[in-house]
Amino acid sequence: MLAFILIFGGFVTVKSKFFQIRGFKKIWRETIGTLFSGKKSECSDKEISQFGAFCSTLAATMGTGNIVGVASAVAIGGAGAIFWMWVSAFIGMMIVFAENFYGTIYRKKDKSGEWSGGAVNYIVQGTGSKAVALIYAALCVAASFGMGNMVQTNSISSALMEEYSVDLIITGVVTSFLCGLAIIGGIKRISAVTKVIIPFISVIYISASLIIIFKNIVIIPDILGKIFSEAFGISAFGGGVSGIMIKKAISTGLKRGVFSNEAGLGTSAMIHASGSCKKPEVQGMWGIVEVFTDTIVCCTLTALVILCYTTNGGSCASEGPALVINAFRGGFGKYAGSFVCISISVFAFATLIGWSHCGESAFRYIFKQKFQYVYKFLYCIAAAVGAVLELSTVWTMSDIFNGLMIMPNIIALIILCIKNPIDYFNYKK
Q1: How far apart are CA 23 and CA 19, in angstroms?
Q2: Residue 403 belongs to a domain with what CATH number?
Q3: Residue at 152 is within a domain
Q4: How many helices and strands (H and E) does the chain possess?
Q5: According to DSSP H, which parts of 146-219 are helical?
Q6: Rounded to an integer, what is the distance from CA 360 to the centroid of its chain?
Q7: What is the pLDDT of residue 428?
Q8: How many domains does the chain have?
Q9: Other Cβ atoms within 10 Å of 177 Cβ, number
Q10: 45 lies in a domain?
Q11: What does the pLDDT read at residue 36?
Q12: Which carries the bigger pLDDT value, residue 122 or residue 239?
C-alpha cells in the first residue's frame, strides 16, 4: 500500500513540476492569506467556509499521530525516521491536492441541498464502477469506527487515567456525550467546534514546543545533523552505514507520516466537498497547507522536543505518551504531564468528530439519506466502548481498513490524472 502512495505521489509531484515549492506564493495567497485580506467567506447554510473545511480536515488528521505517533517513530526508527516523515509529507501534499481537486470537480448536491461525495464520486468517474466506490465507502465507514473513533477515545481515556486516575467508564460516557453534541448538527456544527479548538490547542502546543527548542537552541544543529545522517543509515559510531538502521528509519518514518497526514485515504476530499469554494485548484491548495501544518510543522516540533530530551541524556526506551511526557518534563518540570495529557485529549477529540463526517459521508453514499442518525448513534456508542477496550485488535483492523481504502482511491486518481489532467499544475505567474 505504501508503494502505491510513493509512486503516485512522486508521479504527481514531478508532473506538477514540484508545485508545492514552485507555487508557494500562490498557495499562501489563495489559502492562509485570505484570512488577512478582510474578504468575507460567501457560503450558504448548507456549506462551510474554506477555513472551516481546513480546520475540520486538520481535526480529522491531527490526532494522536502528531504526538504519540512521532514518539513511536523516534523510539523505533531513530532520529532518521523524521526525515522520511518529511518525505511522506512532501509527496503527500500533491496527493491531497489531487484528492481535493477531483473531489470538488465531481461533487454533487443531495436531496437536502448539501454538497456530498468527495472521494466516492471521483472513484466512480475514475474506475467507471459504482461497485468499487461502494466498497471504498464501506471500508471508510469501518475505518471511521476504528482509527477515527475507538483509537482516539482510548488515547483520551488512557491519558486521563495515567495523569488524573479518571475511571475509564466515566471518560467513555463523557466523551460519547460531547461527541454527540458536536456531530448532531452535521458538518456545520463540526466546523464551528473545530474552528475554535484546533487553532487554540495548536497555538498552545506549538508555543510550548518552541520554548523548549529555543532553550536548547545550541544543540539543534547537531540534532538536525543526526536526523539527516541516520536517515541514510550512517552510524554515529565510526561513520559506518547500517542497512538495518536505514530500513527502520525509512519504513517507520514513511508509515507514521502517512498515518499522520492521511494522504492517499481520500478523507480530505470528503470534508472539502462540503466547502464553499467552487474552484477545485484552491481546494487542492488548502490540502497542501493541511499536510504542511500537520506533518512538517506539528510532527517536526514534537520530534525536536523529544530529540532535545534524548540528546541531553534522556532515555528513549519508553514509547508513546510516556516518552513525550518525559521530554516535556525536561522543559517544564512536573506540569508537563498535565500539558501533554490535555494536548492528547483535545487533538484526539478533534480527530474523533472530524472523522465522523468522513464516515457519515460514506454511510450516506451507501444508504442515501436513510439511517444517517443510526450512524451517528452508533458512532457515539463506539466512542464510549473504545474508552474501555483493549485496542490492539482495533489498531490492527484499522490499519487493514486504512490500507484497503488506499487501493481504489489511488487507482482512481491515477486514471483521472490520465483522462482529465490537472492543467492548473501548469500555472505560471
Answers
A1: 5
A2: 1.20.1740.10
A3: yes
A4: 20, 2
A5: 151-164, 168-183, 186-215
A6: 18
A7: 45
A8: 1
A9: 13
A10: no
A11: 75
A12: 122
